[in-house]
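User: Could you write out the 3D structure of this protein bound to zinc ion? I've included everything you need below.
Assistant: Certainly. Input first, then the structure.
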Amino acid sequence: MKEPAPVLEEIQGTILWGVNNIWTVLAEGREYRCRIKGKVLKGREETYSPLVPGDRVRLSPVSNLGEGLILERLDRRNSFCRLNSKRGLVQILAANIDILVCLCSPLSPPFRPRFIDRVLVMAEGHFPVLIVCNKGDQLPPPGPSESPSPEDCRRRLADFERMGYPVLFCSALHGEGMDRLREALAGKTAALVGQSGVGKSSLLNSLTGFHLTTGAVSEKHNRGRHTTNFARLFPWEGGGLVDTPGIREIGLWGFPRRDLAHFMRDLKPFLGSCALPGCLHQGEPGCAVRGAAEQGKIHFDRYDSYLRMLGDGE
Ligand SMILES: Nc1nc2c(ncn2[C@@H]2O[C@H](COP(=O)(O)OP(=O)(O)OP(=O)(O)O)[C@@H](O)[C@H]2O)c(=O)[nH]1
Ligand SMILES: [Mg+2]
Ligand SMILES: [Zn+2]
């Protein structure tokens, strides 16, 4: 008589990455290649993908060969997401993170403070952000400079620091600043986000000694080539690092636009002082936020960034 198949017990694990609906899950010290049971998970239909790196799942091993079936996604503690307004879809890049590393570079690709503004808004109240300026070798030494752009990058990063966001300078290629970064991230689950070409994969390689593919910034357009095409969590130093694909735009999502100013730390101190209740700070009479921007108490670019984000809709 045939013996009944052993019943393998359900276990919990963490999604590392997924391609073509095959998910690699780390559970009890072992990697399982998994499909989703019934191919559907309860969840939001407007997102790109039912699971993302960092998601905790319940799975049932189906063999002793490291294969499994995902039965359920456990509730997320947090997630970093953006609206892809062209496609009208929400892209979640990572879930259950301890810290978000917003990576930028001074020259190639060019420094884009408005990108950072958007990352900070999406993170506010959910998890801390560490701003990392990679390619420090492209920065001239501090002080008067011939080229205004990298100097402006330093100044703007100092502004973010004054708002309470830690800023680190480093070079993934040359190794400067990497010890401090390692110290800041060890033991945590960190997601690295930024435009294509800022050096997310290079930074991960430098921290871990891995050999992820990196791609030269296009000389013609001075932008990255979208070398990394899916997000992946790498366990590291008792925590993990999530490498993500480069993002061109961050559409805001998940809160009413009238609350936007509450997600901008430098605007917040002025919010109670506008003359009109429900002021959206777009030029209403007696607006304390606009007044502060005109007096230089808020960087005018940040105020302008606010107006643009407000114009995103919803
Ligand atoms: N000069 C300089 N170049 C760097 C540094 N770090 C990375 N690069 C280069 O920048 C280019 C882009 O690096 P990647 O690591 O592929 O960038 P990425 O952010 O992962 O890009 P995507 O995967 O496209 O989002 C590569 O040619 C790297 O060698 C650095 O510290 N200094
Ligand atoms: Mg990459
Ligand atoms: Zn106002």
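The chain has a mean pLDDT of 92.
User: Perfect, thank you.
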